[in-house]
């Protein structure tokens, strides 16, 4: 049971870390266009 | 004692007699110095008539800081253009506009400013186009003048609109992510307690630790992700009109506070998992709604992008690059292959194929040769074209359509208003039941369960999403909906009245037969007719194009009858039999009736000259489209101003029973009114400008048309393509959408009716309430997204190829 006292705070920290990573990706425009990248791989230009 | 209302803004006057000003011959009371100053400015400017004609109170004036940044030439690059020597033009968005009198007032106030050369306000979009001389007046002074009379204005910049949309989208997604990720993690912490179920295998320290972790992660979900619910609830409470946000905010807020208290004190139940999940599911439903709305807005965005195009204009023997909005009628413009066409016009030289899917939904490219019409915003695919500009900038069809779509999006469908009316008392009921159940049982969690389980979210979502979705699907097929309520009306239509020319037929007349009635030869008659008709825009006139030259002066159009002019030394008329008989002063020598042909007569003062029989081709899809309309139980009528014999021939070929020929515009109006008196709901299909009154009289109207005429016709639906198939398609879509809306209403009402007593009795806990409520909203929303019907597949297929080539260079 002692392991929980370490693991639970660790998991809370991980949640905030992942949240921060997502925020960076969002602000970087990663999710602005969800349609085009899917089609882009099919085009021959690139 | 009741307070007097401010004469300007209608707010109560706290101190009678403190602010007074004479308006319309009487001393009036005002609520504040601002309103009094505004009223004095209006009166001093000679616009007192505004108060006599306005239909509602004005907004209270705000602060008046001078936005000097608007005068900066660098900043003006974003929204203003140089429109002439010493003249700049910008589009301003007006705020606080309440009625037509407001627009009048603003327009007058702007035009009176020294240095302002032009001020036009578009009533539909509430945007003002203002031109001014920078040497004589600053833009900030213009905006201040608008603020001085109690309104506000700011420059309209389509790109800042795009940036604003992107920021809104990112924020919504971020809220959704925080709530979703938080909910998942909190459920992990809640899981051991559920498994344990009070058996005692979980140590109290571990349980307390997990509760604290849950609290820490739920906090941002409540504070940040649920922000819109709280601010919405606050707005609703301020107006004392609780909507769907009030019970949600109360339920979530109270649930979180009680759980946090239980965590801190270490006693009582926690429901962090239920709250976080509820927040996530509700935000998910809102995000889908938001995405559906943005998808519809995207279409408008693409149409209004003309301002970002560049064009190559022919000047001094070479093509110079200019901005699309600088083009004017008559310019010669080069359109390279792969570029968007910058204005409406006709091809002068070259031939190519053009993708018009943006405007018409037609996926196949169209061949364009010298003389073909080109529309702004469409894509030139193969070869360079040289075109002559007919309409540029805001006059183009694309801009016209964008404005219509915006107008429809801004109008509120009756169904949505009705849903709000039902939701209102229901929310009061929910609040009352929650209070009674909570107080009588002494258990706050029962009150929270009632609030959460029975919030009328599903009711509020039922109609708007379905209608937005249906309008989006119609746009993808090239059908523009210009009034939001029209879909509802369309689903209830019983009779469809068609005009003939240009609607069921192509309106491409040709002369099938010429009968000479006098001394003049055929060539002379054709030449006379061609010259007379050359001044007319009537579809019949085009049959005579290029028939030869004769000298005709003072050609004068007599609507509904024909054209009169002077040919040499005598008067000549072309038109209906009666019109020509008046001039010829003799009865027609022989009856000439040919089934399916439209007769046009030519006569001069000495007698009859000729009878032309014109032929018009039926549209290919006419028979199929009518069969589909009959299949869904609609009665079809044919109502035309054309010759009765020609109308009968078309009606026979298409199997239409009720037909009326030779109808004047008042006849058409009377016909529709008679049907309506019989309790029929009438849809009218016409070709735009010629049928405007009858289109307005019908319950719902379609304008067919490839020209700008259709866009100006005020019809409820505008068919941008020329395919009649879209008419039954629109009917089917409207009925499908209304079916979905009814299902949604039925589901939402049934769910709420069942959940309310169960939650009030305490049989549903907060967890079940959250699941039930969120599931109900999702079912309604997913059902609403179906309203696009089969068209949605086509839409997504179309969206990507037509989007991909252009946007990146202009928006980077």
Name a few traits of the molecule.
heterodimer; A: 46 residues; mainly alpha; 67% helix; elongated; B: 812 residues; alpha+beta; 28 helices; 29 strands; globular
| Major sheet details of chain B | 7 strands, mixed
Structural class category of chain B: alpha+beta
Helix and strand element order of chain A = HH
- Determine the N-to-C terminus distance of chain A: 54 Å
Biggest pleated-sheet summary of chain A: none
Q: What features would you describe in this structure?
A:
The complex is a heterodimer of chains A (46) and B (812). Chain A is elongated. Chain A has helices at 2-27, 36-40. Chain A is mostly helical. Chain B has 812 residues and is an alpha+beta fold. Chain B contains 28 helices and 29 strands. In chain B, the strands form six sheets. Chain B has a seven-stranded mixed beta sheet, sandwiched between helices. In chain B, strands 9-8-10-16-11-14 form a six-stranded antiparallel beta sheet, with no helix packed on it. In chain B, helix 13 (414-441) runs antiparallel to helix 14 (444-453), helix 14 (444-453) runs parallel beside helix 26 and helix 20 runs parallel beside helix 25. Chain B starts with 19 loop residues before the first strand and ends with a helix. At the A-B interface, helix 1 and helix 2 of A face helix 6, helix 7 and helix 27 of B.
Write the layout of secondary structure elements.
The complex is a heterodimer of chains A (46) and B (812).
Chain A: H1 2-27, H2 36-40
Chain B: E1 20-23, E2 26-29, H1 33-44, H2 49-53, H3 73-76, E3 80-84, E4 87-95, H4 100-112, E5 116-122, E6 127-132, H5 139-148, E7 152-155, H6 158-196, H7 204-225, H8 227-238, H9 245-265, H10 272-303, E8 310-315, E9 318-323, E10 332-335, E11 344-349, E12 352-355, H11 357-360, E13 366-368, E14 373-374, E15 379-380, E16 385-391, H12 397-410, H13 414-441, H14 444-453, H15 457-476, E17 479-481, H16 486-491, E18 495-498, H17 500-504, E19 510-516, H18 522-533, E20 552-558, E21 562-567, E22 570-575, H19 577-584, E23 598-604, E24 607-615, H20 622-631, E25 635-639, H21 644-654, E26 659-660, H22 665-677, E27 682-686, H23 692-697, E28 700-704, H24 708-712, E29 717-719, H25 726-760, H26 766-785, H27 791-803, H28 807-811
Parallel strand pairs in B: 18-25, 18-27, 25-26, 27-28, 28-29
Antiparallel strand pairs in B: 1-2, 3-4, 4-6, 4-7, 5-6, 8-9, 8-10, 10-16, 11-14, 11-16, 12-13, 12-15, 17-29, 19-24, 20-21, 21-22, 22-23, 23-24
Helix pairs in contact in B: 6-7, 6-10, 7-9, 7-10, 8-9, 9-10, 9-14, 10-12, 10-15, 10-26, 13-14, 13-15, 14-25, 14-26, 15-25, 15-26, 20-25, 25-26
């Amino acid at each position: 049971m002692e392991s929980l006292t370490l693991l639970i705070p660790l998991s809370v920290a991980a949640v905030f870390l992942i949240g921060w990573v997502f925020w960076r990706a969002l602000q970087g425009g990663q999710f602005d266009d969800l349609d085009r990248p899917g089609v882009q791989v099919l085009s021959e230009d690139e | 004692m009741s307070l007097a209302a401010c004469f300007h803004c209608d707010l109560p006057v706290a101190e009678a007699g403190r602010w007074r000003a004479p308006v319309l011959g009487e001393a009036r009371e005002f609520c504040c110095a601002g309103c009094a100053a505004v009223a004095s400015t209006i009166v001093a400017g000679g616009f007192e008539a505004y108060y006599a004609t306005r239909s509602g109170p004005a907004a209270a004036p705000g602060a008046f800081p001078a936005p000097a940044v608007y005068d900066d030439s660098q900043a003006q690059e974003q929204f203003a253009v140089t429109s002439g020597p010493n003249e700049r033009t910008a589009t301003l968005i007006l705020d606080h506009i309440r009625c037509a009198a407001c627009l009048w007032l603003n327009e007058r106030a702007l035009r009176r400013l020294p240095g302002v050369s032009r001020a036009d306000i578009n009533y539909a979009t509430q945007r003002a186009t203002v031109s001014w001389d920078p040497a004589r007046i600053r833009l900030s002074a213009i905006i201040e003048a608008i603020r001085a009379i109690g309104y506000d204005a700011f420059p309209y910049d389509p790109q800042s609109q795009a940036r604003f949309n992107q920021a809104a989208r990112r924020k919504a997604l971020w809220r959704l992510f925080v709530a979703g990720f938080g909910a998942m993690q909190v459920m992990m912490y809640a899981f051991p307690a559920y498994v344990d179920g009070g058996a005692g295998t979980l140590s109290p320290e571990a349980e307390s630790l997990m509760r604290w972790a849950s609290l820490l992660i739920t906090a941002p979900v409540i504070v940040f992700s649920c922000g819109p619910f709280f601010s919405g609830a606050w707005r609703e409470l301020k107006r004392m009109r609780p909507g769907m946000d009030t019970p949600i905010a109360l339920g979530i807020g109270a649930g979180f506070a009680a759980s946090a208290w239980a965590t801190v004190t270490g006693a009582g139940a926690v429901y962090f998992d239920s709250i976080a999940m509820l927040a996530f599911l509700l935000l998910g439903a809102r995000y889908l709604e938001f995405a559906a709305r943005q998808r519809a807005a995207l279409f408008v965005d693409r149409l209004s992008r003309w301002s970002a195009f560049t064009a190559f204009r022919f000047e001094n023997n070479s093509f110079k690059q200019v901005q699309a909005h600088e083009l004017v009628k008559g310019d010669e413009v080069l359109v390279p292959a792969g570029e968007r066409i910058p204005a409406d016009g006709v091809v002068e030289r070259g031939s190519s194929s053009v993708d018009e899917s943006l405007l018409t939904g037609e996926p196949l490219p169209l061949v364009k040769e010298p003389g073909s019409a080109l529309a702004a915003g469409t894509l030139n695919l193969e070869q360079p074209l040289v075109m002559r500009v007919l309409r540029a900038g805001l006059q183009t069809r694309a801009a016209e359509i964008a404005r219509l779509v915006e107008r429809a999006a801004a109008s509120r469908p009756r169904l949505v208003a009705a849903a709000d009316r039902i939701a209102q008392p229901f929310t009061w009921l929910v609040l009352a039941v929650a209070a009674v159940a909570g107080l009588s049982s002494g258990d706050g969690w029962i009150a929270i369960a009632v609030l959460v389980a029975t919030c009328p979210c599903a009711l509020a979502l039922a109609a708007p999403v379905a209608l937005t979705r249906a309008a989006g699907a119609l746009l993808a097929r090239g059908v523009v909906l210009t009034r939001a309520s029209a879909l509802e009306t369309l689903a209830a239509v019983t009779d469809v009245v068609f005009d003939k020319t240009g609607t069921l037929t192509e309106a491409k007349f040709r002369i099938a037969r010429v009968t000479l009635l006098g001394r003049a030869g055929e060539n002379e008659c054709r030449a006379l007719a061609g010259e007379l008709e050359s001044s007319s825009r009537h579809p019949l006139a085009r049959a005579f194009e290029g028939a030869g030259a004769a000298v005709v002066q003072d050609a004068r159009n007599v609507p509904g009858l024909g054209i009169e002019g002077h040919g040499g030394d005598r008067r000549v008329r072309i038109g209906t039999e009666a019109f020509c008989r008046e001039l010829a002063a003799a009865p027609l020598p022989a009856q000439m009736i040919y089934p399916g042909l439209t007769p046009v007569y030519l006569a001069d003062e000495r007698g009859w000259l000729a009878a032309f029989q014109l032929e018009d081709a039926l549209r290919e899809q006419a028979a199929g489209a009518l069969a589909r309309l009959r299949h869904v139980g609609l009665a079809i009528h044919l109502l035309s101003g054309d010759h009765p014999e020609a109308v009968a021939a078309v009606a026979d070929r298409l199997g239409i029973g009720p037909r009326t020929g030779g109808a004047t515009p008042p006849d058409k109006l009377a016909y529709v009114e008679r049907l309506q008196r019989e309790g029929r709901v009438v849809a009218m299909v016409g070709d735009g400008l010629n049928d405007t009154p009858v289109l307005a009289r019908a319950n719902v109207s379609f304008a067919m048309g490839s020209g700008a005429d259709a866009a100006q016709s005020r019809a409820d639906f505008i068919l941008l393509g020329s395919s009649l198939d879209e008419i039954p398609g629109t009917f089917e879509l409207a009925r499908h959408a209304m079916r979905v809306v009814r299902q949604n209403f039925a589901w939402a009402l049934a769910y709420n009716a069942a959940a309310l007593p169960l939650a009030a009795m305490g049989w549903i806990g907060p967890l079940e309430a959250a699941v039930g409520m969120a599931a109900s909203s999702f079912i309604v929303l997913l059902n609403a997204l179906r309203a696009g019907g089969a068209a949605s597949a086509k839409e997504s297929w179309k969206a990507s190829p037509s989007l991909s080539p252009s946007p990146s260079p202009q928006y980077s």
